[in-house]
Structure formats: C-alpha cells, structure tokens
Amino acid sequence: QVQLVESGGGLVQPGGSLRLSCAASGSIFRANVMGWYRQAPGKERDLVAEITSGGITTSADSVKGRFTISRDNAKNTVYLQMNSLKPEDTAVYYCYLRMGRNYWGQGTQVTVSS
C-alpha cells in the first residue's frame, strides 16, 4: 500500500511564492518517478514537473524558470518550489509517484489572487 500526503498549498498574491511537499510511504521501489500535475476548473490535468530518483527533471514550458522540483530520496519526499506565481497557476496540484503505475495524492489547492 502506497500513500502520498501533500502539504503547502494556499492563497498567495501574484508574484509570490509557495512550496509544496509530498511525502510517500509504504512499499517504495528505489527506482521511481515523482512529480506534480495540476488541474484548473474546467480543464484537464496537466503535467507541471517530475523528477526521477536519479535527479533527472522534466517541466512544463509554462513553469520553466519559475518552478523548481526537487526530492529527498531518503525521505521519499518531492518538493515543488513555486516562485513568481501568476493567476493562471491557480489549480489543484496533485502529487504522484510512478513505479509501474501511478499513485496519487489527494490534491492541494493553490490560489493566486490579489
């Protein structure tokens, strides 16, 4: 049984920063991918960024230069540092862990508004 627990969402003004965390527990293989998707109201769930256990990262063009993904393999935790936030970043952010299949967190709301 794998569980993902997210934290760090909230309300922030445009230009502000937030840091999301996601801790995985259970039977975790050493080789895996962790990352974040987001879903805005009325839109599909889109990839934000992901990182392999070896540290290789992929991110959406819309967040490059603003968001940084990192992980602590010893803690099975992935982080998303979000800077220069824009109203269009408003969404529910979902953490996932991929090892054969995707395991998902419950989602955390990020709202960027003045």
How does this structure look, described?
The protein is an all-beta fold and 114 residues long. The chain is 0% helix and 56% strand. The protein is built from no helices and eleven strands. The strands form two sheets. Strands 2, 4, 5, 6, 9, 10 and 11 form a seven-stranded mixed β-sheet that branches. A hairpin with a 5-residue loop joins strand 4 and strand 5. The protein is globular. It starts with a strand and ends with a strand. The model has no long low-confidence stretch (mean pLDDT 96).
Basic shape = globular
What is the chain-wise order of helices and strands? EEEEEEEEEEE
Gap between N and C termini, in Å?
40 Å
Overall number of strands:
11
Structural class: mainly beta
Strand content: over 45%
Instruction: Report helical residue fraction.
Output: under 10%
Number of helices: 0
Calculate the mean pLDDT score and round it: 96
Low-confidence region ranges: none
Rg, nearest Å: 13 Å
State the major sheet. Answer: 7 strands, mixed
Topology of this protein?
Blueprint: E1 3-7, E2 10-12, E3 18-25, E4 33-39, E5 45-52, E6 57-59, E7 67-72, E8 77-82, E9 91-99, E10 101-104, E11 108-112
Give the structure's gist in a few sentences.
Helix content is 0%, strand content 56%. The mean pLDDT is 96.
Notable features of this structure?
single chain; about 110 residues; mainly beta; seven-stranded mixed β-sheet
